[in-house]
Model the fold of this input.
Amino acid sequence: MTVLSPGKVTVDVRLVPEDLGQALRRDARAGLTATPKTMPPVWFYDDRGCELYEAITRTPEYYPFRTERDLLRRSAGQIAEAAGASVLVELGSGTSEKTRLLLEAMAAGTAGLAGYVPFDVAEGTLRSAAEAVAEEFGVGVHAVVGDFHEHLEDIPDLDGPRLVAFLGSTIGNFPPPQRREFLENLASLLGPSDRFLLATDLVKPVDRLVAAYDDAEGVTAAFDLNLLSVLNRELGADFDPDRFEHVAAWDPENRWMEMRLRAREAMTVHVEELDLVVEFAAGEQMRTEISSKFTFDLVRRELGAVGLQVTGLWTDPAGDYLLTLARPA
Ligand code: SAH
Ligand code: AVI
Done:
């Protein structure tokens, strides 16, 4: 059992830079030699990528962030009471901006707030958010630098029932088999009095979806293209970002948005650290992210399939976004 001291920050680093480097080399080798080419979205989030994500959340087109924030403003009190938890664990916490609404509601609620456990792959962003929350709320914060798909079991067991929140609709970024595996792992970590709060973006008209992933100011395009700078810096690649363009497309069969990088012309890219030469044909597209859109039914079915029973649902007046509270069945 981990014990937290009020106002104190502990950071547990499960992913040191060498592990990250090895994982990036593995993903880049697999993804750049695949047909079609692809890269997993975790590599967006270096310091610049985290800043660009934050900038995306301020664009008028990116409704998910604002909608979730407004939904939490209205419902965090109810959610906190229904969860009855005194510790908040948050997966993919980033800057913990919207989290403050949940932390405030828990602190003011019956169970009170005993601690916060943010979990993220982006160490710098995680450390600043952890310090800020500890200072603002005077609670103990135990941050974990880790990967959702490898380090969930490193989430500490703290004294008190836990609410595990996965906000931002980040679960939408997992391909369905990975989503199933993630939910199974997560469910196996929950004790009988723990609860899971899952945010999902709902299916809606295509024009709004495409605009959200291709804003007029080009912030999402810069976020997508930043992946190439990560590959250049970390793996000694020679991608020229100006020779690629950002694409956002709706896949109606899979009901997900896809972000892709399209080669404007044929080119050869060298990845020094992998000793790899990669050919791009003119117009060739590399997939960089999927963002699945859900329905109430799908969320209920997928949680039920891993033994989680839905105990509460909150949606905005337009029905754009969903927060689901679940407990071990
Ligand atoms: N929860 C915040 C941030 C969402 S952005 C919000 O709702 O606005 C997605 C976050 O997940 C980023 O902070 C990113 O660093 C983190 N992330 C992405 N892939 C991850 C992975 N595989 N393991 C752990 N964290 C990851
Ligand atoms: C973090 N994730 C849920 C965001 C999304 O909407 O899929 C990342 C993002 N990609 C483009 N814009 C925002």
